[in-house]
Amino acid sequence: MFNSLSDRLTATFKNLRGKGRLTEADVDATVREIRRALLDADVAVPVVREFTGRVRERALGAEVSAALNPSQQIVKIVNEELQEILGGETRRIRLAKNGPTIIMLAGLQGAGKTTLAGKLSKWLKAQGHSPMLVACDLQRPNAVTQLQVVGQRANVPVFAPHPGATSQELDQPAGDPVAVARAGVEEARQKLHDVVIVDTAGRLGVDADMMEQARQIRRAIVPNEVLFVIDSMIGQDAVNTALAFDEGVNFTGIVLSKLDGDARGGAALSVASVTGKPVMFASTGEGLDDFELFHPDRMASRILD
Ligand code: GDP
After folding, report:
1. What digits encode the pLDDT tens for the residues 60-110?
2. Which of the 8 DSSP states describes residue 290?
3. Is 109 assigned to a binding site?
4. Which UniProt keywords apply (predicted)?
């Protein structure tokens, strides 16, 4: 994903190799190159500005280390700042102390929520959890079926508001996602599932009705985590979409999906920075195993590799 950004940054640092001391002009030239590389990778302008400002300040500052030469020093600073904009430390799911841990998924249609529900439940199962999925995307005709298929592949039960599903949901009003979410969580509690993942409806763009529905679901089920799923290839819209969802549902973590794509991907790097929320997972393909816990330090190192 970040190949071209990675190449550009590596080339920039190569120019500094062998220099015994960096002048202010060296630092400025380097920061300029970093700025261009980030902008070309689609990182949002305010994020680039802040990032390069901090790198410049630190590079010119008193952080002189006997162990590192000037080019290593700058690489170290950029590495730490990249890690910071990606959310700092690795952030794991906060498990509920009593009853099921409730995880709500939110994001635009096509972002990868339903696929993520399967990936996350398979991953949680492998760690000894007993997840259950709840289908609250009643907007898209196929969404419930799609979640059921994903549930079958991951071998986890799916609570869904129509016949053929596994539970008492026939009592629920089929058209009300808030009621379905509430009933799904209740069923998970009764059946002693320790994690319940609630898939919600998205639209192609940010939409007031969709957001209100997501907000109501959040209020009804009081999730431990609200994961905002974003397609890494969405480009410059990423920032506004993320800000809208953050305002709408106050998400607790970010999932970058489609990181396997070959788009520039820098917009995804901006999302954590502008919302102040951590990236928690990376989705890297259509298969249920194409999924990993996101480590900001490893991603930063990979970009600077
Ligand atoms: P939703 O509308 O948010 O539930 O999105 P879906 O889970 O239905 O995903 C939309 C499309 O993106 C589907 O065709 C998925 O197979 C595909 N998809 C989801 N996650 C990934 C990913 O990480 N990489 C790739 N390449 N495709 C993905």
Report:
1. 886 666 677 888 888 999 999 999 988 888 999 999 998 899 999 999 999
2. -
3. yes
4. Cytoplasm, GTP-binding, Hydrolase, Nucleotide-binding, Ribonucleoprotein, RNA-binding, Signal recognition particle
The verdict on the CB of residue 111 being under 6 Å from ligand 1 is: yes
The DSSP output letter for 288 is: T
Give the residue among 268, 230, 239, 253 at the shortest CA–CA distance from 1: 268
The residue to which tokens 């609250």 are assigned? 136
Q: Is 292 helix (H, G, I), strand (E, B) or coil?
A: strand
Nearest CA to ligand 1 atom 20: 112
Distance (Å) from CA 228 to ligand 1 centroid: 14
**Residue 165: band (very low, low, confident or very high) from pLDDT cuts 50, 70, 90:** very low
Q: Are 256 and 227 in contact (CB under 8 A)?
A: no
Q: Please report the pLDDT score of residue 234 as a whole number.
A: 84
Q: Is 147 in the pocket of ligand 1 (CB under 6 A)?
A: no
Write the single-letter amino acid at 258: K
What ipTM describes this predicted complex? 0.98
Would the CB of 253 count as within 6 Å of ligand 1? no
Both structure tokens of 37: 């590389």
> Rounded to whole angstroms, how far apart are CA atoms 283 and 232?
9
Contacts for 61 with CB less than 8 Å, ≥ 6 apart: none
For the Cβ of 121 lying below 6 angstroms from any atom of ligand 1, the answer is no
Over pLDDT 70: what percentage of the chain?
92
Q: How far is the CA of 132 from the centre of ligand 1 (A)?
A: 20
Which string of DSSP letters, residue by residue, matches 208-241? HHHHHHHHHHHHHH--SEEEEEEETTSTTHHHHH
Q: Is the CB of 286 under 6 A from ligand 1?
A: yes
